[in-house]
Amino acid sequence: MPDQLPHVVAVWIASADGRSTLDGRSSGLSNAADRAVFRGLRAEADALLVGSRTLAIERYRRPVRDPRLRERRVALGLAEEPTVLVVSRELSLPTDIPLLQDPASRVRILTWSDAAPPAVPAQVEVTRLPADARCLRAALKAARSAGIRSIVCEGGPTLLGLLIAEDLLDELVVTIAPMFVGAGEQPVATGGVAHPPRRYRLTALDRDEDHVFARYVRARDL
Description:
The protein is of the alpha/beta class. The protein has one domain: 3-Layer(aba) Sandwich (Dihydrofolate Reductase, subunit A), CATH 3.40.430. The protein is built from six helices and nine strands; from the N terminus they run βαβααβαββαβαβββ. It has helices spanning 32-42, 52-57, 67-75, 98-101, 136-145, 157-165; strands spanning 7-15, 47-51, 83-87, 106-111, 123-128, 150-153, 171-177, 200-208, 211-218. The protein has a nine-stranded mixed β-sheet with strand order 5-4-3-2-6-1-7-9-8, sandwiched between helices. It is globular, with a radius of gyration of 17 Å.
Protein backbone atom coordinates (compact mmCIF):
# COMPACT_ATOMS: atom_id res chain seq x y z
CA MET A 1 0.00 0.00 0.00
CA PRO A 2 1.46 3.45 -0.90
CA ASP A 3 2.65 5.73 1.88
CA GLN A 4 -0.07 7.95 3.26
CA LEU A 5 1.42 11.40 2.77
CA PRO A 6 0.03 14.94 2.81
CA HIS A 7 -0.61 16.77 -0.44
CA VAL A 8 2.42 19.06 -0.83
CA VAL A 9 2.43 22.35 -2.74
CA ALA A 10 5.74 24.18 -3.08
CA VAL A 11 5.54 27.95 -3.50
CA TRP A 12 8.46 30.18 -4.41
CA ILE A 13 9.47 33.32 -6.22
CA ALA A 14 12.51 33.44 -8.48
CA SER A 15 14.37 36.09 -10.41
CA ALA A 16 14.84 35.65 -14.16
CA ASP A 17 18.24 34.10 -13.43
CA GLY A 18 16.84 31.56 -11.00
CA ARG A 19 17.62 33.20 -7.65
CA SER A 20 15.18 33.23 -4.75
CA THR A 21 16.35 36.32 -2.86
CA LEU A 22 17.31 39.95 -3.31
CA ASP A 23 19.57 41.34 -0.59
CA GLY A 24 19.19 38.01 1.19
CA ARG A 25 15.38 37.90 1.41
CA SER A 26 12.59 36.75 -0.90
CA SER A 27 10.50 39.88 -0.21
CA GLY A 28 12.84 41.93 -2.41
CA LEU A 29 11.58 40.05 -5.48
CA SER A 30 7.89 40.16 -4.62
CA ASN A 31 4.99 42.45 -5.53
CA ALA A 32 1.42 42.85 -4.25
CA ALA A 33 0.00 40.12 -6.51
CA ASP A 34 2.68 37.65 -5.42
CA ARG A 35 1.93 38.36 -1.78
CA ALA A 36 -1.77 37.79 -2.47
CA VAL A 37 -1.01 34.37 -4.02
CA PHE A 38 1.13 33.54 -1.00
CA ARG A 39 -1.60 34.50 1.47
CA GLY A 40 -4.22 32.59 -0.52
CA LEU A 41 -2.21 29.37 -0.37
CA ARG A 42 -1.65 29.80 3.35
CA ALA A 43 -5.38 30.27 3.84
CA GLU A 44 -6.18 26.80 2.48
CA ALA A 45 -3.45 24.55 3.92
CA ASP A 46 -3.39 22.49 7.10
CA ALA A 47 0.28 23.32 7.61
CA LEU A 48 3.26 25.28 6.32
CA LEU A 49 6.61 23.53 5.89
CA VAL A 50 9.79 25.54 6.35
CA GLY A 51 13.44 24.93 7.12
CA SER A 52 14.93 26.41 10.28
CA ARG A 53 17.33 28.68 8.35
CA THR A 54 14.52 30.23 6.32
CA LEU A 55 12.54 30.63 9.54
CA ALA A 56 15.37 32.80 10.86
CA ILE A 57 16.14 34.77 7.69
CA GLU A 58 12.52 35.69 6.96
CA ARG A 59 11.75 36.39 10.66
CA TYR A 60 8.54 34.37 10.61
CA ARG A 61 5.38 35.53 12.38
CA ARG A 62 2.02 33.84 12.86
CA PRO A 63 1.03 32.82 9.32
CA VAL A 64 -2.60 34.07 9.15
CA ARG A 65 -3.28 37.31 11.01
CA ASP A 66 -6.07 38.71 8.80
CA PRO A 67 -9.47 38.01 10.47
CA ARG A 68 -11.10 37.56 7.05
CA LEU A 69 -8.64 34.82 6.11
CA ARG A 70 -9.15 33.12 9.46
CA GLU A 71 -12.91 33.16 8.84
CA ARG A 72 -12.33 31.73 5.37
CA ARG A 73 -10.31 28.88 6.87
CA VAL A 74 -13.01 28.07 9.42
CA ALA A 75 -15.63 28.04 6.64
CA LEU A 76 -13.47 25.45 4.84
CA GLY A 77 -13.39 23.27 7.95
CA LEU A 78 -9.81 24.16 8.85
CA ALA A 79 -8.22 25.52 12.01
CA GLU A 80 -8.06 29.32 12.18
CA GLU A 81 -4.35 29.18 11.38
CA PRO A 82 -2.14 26.53 9.79
CA THR A 83 0.40 24.69 11.89
CA VAL A 84 3.98 25.71 11.12
CA LEU A 85 6.06 22.58 10.49
CA VAL A 86 9.75 23.23 11.01
CA VAL A 87 12.29 20.70 9.76
CA SER A 88 15.36 20.96 11.98
CA ARG A 89 17.92 18.16 12.03
CA GLU A 90 19.76 19.46 15.09
CA LEU A 91 16.81 21.18 16.82
CA SER A 92 18.57 24.52 16.54
CA LEU A 93 15.96 27.26 16.18
CA PRO A 94 15.92 31.09 16.13
CA THR A 95 14.03 31.46 19.42
CA ASP A 96 13.85 35.28 19.20
CA ILE A 97 11.67 35.44 16.06
CA PRO A 98 8.07 36.69 16.44
CA LEU A 99 6.57 33.28 15.59
CA LEU A 100 8.22 31.57 18.55
CA GLN A 101 7.64 34.50 20.90
CA ASP A 102 3.87 34.57 20.26
CA PRO A 103 1.83 32.38 22.69
CA ALA A 104 -0.86 31.94 20.01
CA SER A 105 1.52 30.37 17.47
CA ARG A 106 1.23 26.63 16.82
CA VAL A 107 4.54 25.06 15.80
CA ARG A 108 5.45 21.42 15.26
CA ILE A 109 9.16 20.63 15.00
CA LEU A 110 10.17 17.61 12.94
CA THR A 111 13.61 16.50 14.01
CA TRP A 112 16.04 13.61 14.14
CA SER A 113 17.71 15.11 17.21
CA ASP A 114 17.39 13.93 20.82
CA ALA A 115 17.98 17.46 22.15
CA ALA A 116 15.43 19.17 24.36
CA PRO A 117 13.06 21.60 22.58
CA PRO A 118 13.58 25.33 23.16
CA ALA A 119 11.67 27.04 25.96
CA VAL A 120 9.56 29.63 24.11
CA PRO A 121 6.09 31.18 24.58
CA ALA A 122 4.73 29.56 21.38
CA GLN A 123 2.80 26.29 21.50
CA VAL A 124 5.54 23.90 20.39
CA GLU A 125 5.27 20.15 19.80
CA VAL A 126 8.22 17.99 18.81
CA THR A 127 7.99 14.93 16.58
CA ARG A 128 11.07 12.73 16.85
CA LEU A 129 11.86 10.97 13.60
CA PRO A 130 13.61 7.59 13.43
CA ALA A 131 17.38 7.89 13.22
CA ASP A 132 17.52 5.24 10.50
CA ALA A 133 15.14 7.20 8.24
CA ARG A 134 16.88 10.54 7.74
CA CYS A 135 14.70 11.68 4.90
CA LEU A 136 11.78 14.03 4.38
CA ARG A 137 9.41 11.18 3.54
CA ALA A 138 9.63 10.11 7.18
CA ALA A 139 8.89 13.68 8.27
CA LEU A 140 5.83 13.90 6.00
CA LYS A 141 4.53 10.53 7.17
CA ALA A 142 4.78 11.80 10.74
CA ALA A 143 2.86 14.94 9.78
CA ARG A 144 0.11 12.89 8.12
CA SER A 145 -0.16 10.73 11.25
CA ALA A 146 -0.77 13.96 13.18
CA GLY A 147 -3.79 14.74 10.97
CA ILE A 148 -2.11 17.08 8.49
CA ARG A 149 -3.52 16.47 5.00
CA SER A 150 -2.21 19.45 3.02
CA ILE A 151 1.07 21.32 3.23
CA VAL A 152 2.48 24.44 1.60
CA CYS A 153 6.28 24.29 1.47
CA GLU A 154 7.81 27.77 1.71
CA GLY A 155 11.48 26.76 1.50
CA GLY A 156 14.34 27.31 1.75
CA PRO A 157 16.56 26.00 -1.02
CA THR A 158 17.88 22.94 0.84
CA LEU A 159 14.41 21.83 1.95
CA LEU A 160 12.99 22.32 -1.54
CA GLY A 161 15.89 20.41 -3.09
CA LEU A 162 15.28 17.45 -0.80
CA LEU A 163 11.56 17.41 -1.58
CA ILE A 164 12.35 17.35 -5.29
CA ALA A 165 14.94 14.60 -4.88
CA GLU A 166 12.50 12.41 -2.93
CA ASP A 167 9.66 13.10 -5.41
CA LEU A 168 7.36 14.50 -2.73
CA LEU A 169 5.96 17.56 -4.52
CA ASP A 170 2.42 17.32 -5.91
CA GLU A 171 2.14 20.91 -7.14
CA LEU A 172 4.39 23.88 -7.85
CA VAL A 173 3.30 27.53 -7.62
CA VAL A 174 5.99 29.75 -9.11
CA THR A 175 6.35 33.52 -9.51
CA ILE A 176 8.99 34.86 -11.89
CA ALA A 177 10.22 38.34 -11.00
CA PRO A 178 11.39 40.56 -13.91
CA MET A 179 15.00 41.06 -12.80
CA PHE A 180 18.48 39.55 -12.81
CA VAL A 181 20.10 39.61 -9.37
CA GLY A 182 23.37 37.70 -9.80
CA ALA A 183 25.03 34.63 -8.35
CA GLY A 184 25.50 36.17 -4.89
CA GLU A 185 21.85 35.53 -4.03
CA GLN A 186 20.25 32.25 -2.93
CA PRO A 187 19.23 29.72 -5.61
CA VAL A 188 15.71 28.33 -5.66
CA ALA A 189 16.81 24.80 -4.74
CA THR A 190 20.08 23.17 -3.70
CA GLY A 191 21.40 19.77 -2.79
CA GLY A 192 18.73 17.56 -4.32
CA VAL A 193 19.28 15.24 -7.27
CA ALA A 194 16.15 14.39 -9.25
CA HIS A 195 16.75 11.20 -11.19
CA PRO A 196 14.89 10.63 -13.37
CA PRO A 197 13.82 14.26 -13.90
CA ARG A 198 10.50 15.22 -12.32
CA ARG A 199 7.89 16.24 -14.88
CA TYR A 200 5.02 18.68 -14.22
CA ARG A 201 2.07 19.87 -16.25
CA LEU A 202 1.15 23.55 -16.52
CA THR A 203 -2.39 24.19 -15.25
CA ALA A 204 -2.49 27.99 -14.91
CA LEU A 205 -0.54 30.96 -16.21
CA ASP A 206 -1.12 34.64 -15.37
CA ARG A 207 0.70 37.95 -15.06
CA ASP A 208 0.58 41.14 -13.04
CA GLU A 209 2.49 43.91 -14.75
CA ASP A 210 5.90 42.26 -15.36
CA HIS A 211 5.61 39.42 -12.82
CA VAL A 212 4.55 36.03 -14.23
CA PHE A 213 2.65 33.41 -12.22
CA ALA A 214 2.50 29.71 -13.08
CA ARG A 215 0.96 26.66 -11.43
CA TYR A 216 1.99 23.07 -12.21
CA VAL A 217 0.84 19.62 -11.12
CA ARG A 218 2.92 16.48 -11.03
CA ALA A 219 2.70 14.57 -14.33
CA ARG A 220 3.31 11.12 -12.87
CA ASP A 221 2.16 9.33 -15.99
CA LEU A 222 4.74 10.95 -18.32
